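SAMPLE LOG
Freezer: B-3
Tube label: C17
Construct: single chain, 197 aa
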Amino acid sequence: MAAMHRRYHHGDLRAALLTRAEQTLREKGPGALSLRELARDLGVSHAAPSRHFKDKQALLDALALAGFDRLHETLATYREAGETFADRLGGFARAYVDFAVANAELLDLMYTVKHDPAASEALIKAAQRLGAMTEEVVAEGQRDGEVREGPVDGIALPVFTTLHGFASFAMSRVLSAEQVASGLDAVIAYMLRGCAP
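STRUCTURE (predicted):
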């Protein structure tokens, strides 16, 4: 009984499950994720994960939400590292593409899960926050006179969709690493022209 009790407890099991789930996602894709398999990998009882995730979908939602949180932190850091709109947009774009390439499977899951009709309110808000960050970059540029006048969302939408499209090509390996490096500068220049007063 004591051995079973020790196996069941794992310190921060929720964090360990998310870490192992992301590793499995990266190596084998979302179809390979199983709460039972994760429990076995972590050396806990097969029922232990259910204390944190009621089912596989809850695990996927939590994984996507953690991905959005990491992406937001990354983008916020890079967005603030620039004095001009061009610097801020360039930092934002590079951070987004770097995240996409380094976390392709996770980013794919993030966008897939957020469109699920059963997506949690927290997940929907996290995805919306990403769009709001793009709008904030554009609004700052407008205040500084570096971005044309007009509705912020109407300017931010083509910026973000252009960036996400490029990131999608980069993370799916349609573009080589060299094409990503050289092409991103051209994409940033294109977005800046579209925003120019």
